[in-house]
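Record 1 of the preview.
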Amino acid sequence: MARNNKLCDGRFNCKNCCQRAPNPRKEYFEEIKQEFGDISEWLNQRCGTEGVWRGNWAELAQATVMSLNVRGFGVADKFGWVRGLCIRERPNIAVFQETKCFVQKDAIGNSGGLLVVWDTNRFKVNSAVGGEFFISIRGIWDGFVHNTIVVNVYGPHNDRDKKKLWDSLDSLMDGIDKGWVVCGDFNEVQEHSDRLNCMFHESRARRFNELIVRNNLIEIPIVGRKFTRISDDGIKMSKLDRFRVTDSFINLWKDLSICALDREESDHCPLLLRDGIINYGPKPFKIFDEWLNKDGVDKIINEGWIKNVRESKKDCLFRDKLKNVKGELRGWSKREFGNLDDEINTLKILL
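->
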């Protein structure tokens, strides 16, 4: 069957314009199945050959979009982490970069593989377009009449391909006044402060900023972290992952926020765009000055700090050590002072 849609060019295996091809990932899934059991079944059932999953998560009142450079789905721990993120955060739409198994084009080296998934109860997709470095879906959120276009971007590293991507995004957005969400790993920064201990290219940043200005893309500040990508040794840091939206999208969702989640199995932080109250994560533990005057408190803190932690990344290692200290102090305070909340409530009743 001949292809008659220039925008599609066979990448989505559309029923109307593409010849249905055999699953190019069959051998890959068989290997994963032998290694990790039902992981391949879970992916294959939901993603088909086009790398798009139409899931069925519970209906939510908020609009939520999650973006993550996953650095490959072929590891059991990483797969479980991503699946846990989707279950816990319940995004309406989730976009992934560097899956290394769902590809718009053949992966080059360790790069490649864009994936878009969505909850069909909350977001109704009516069309999709694929480019060399992006996937775009157009649809309507449940309860709304206006279209929203979500673009999943994985930015190339060399200047020629960067220009190709920026030109493609210009063409894609030209003259279409809709609610746009452009997100992903752009592999580019806007200013010098977006990098730490790594090289900043002023000319590349200027071209990236010009793209943003031309298309009136607005950045929503990220809560929780300044940098979204940290090298494995914890030295190099960059703000490569972003959400950019248009005025039309902001008019649909008034209280937008972006939260950076913990980067447990990737060098990139998952980003969560949400409409509503910001989730700042677990509350920090409190320590009172009076505790420091108690005999043995330094021993309690030391016991928590020296506990074994299975993390290798320095920031995650530090986080988990603080969690251990928090746990030790919580138990010690209850033994030393009793349940202070109950005592406070009792005093309130007496007063």
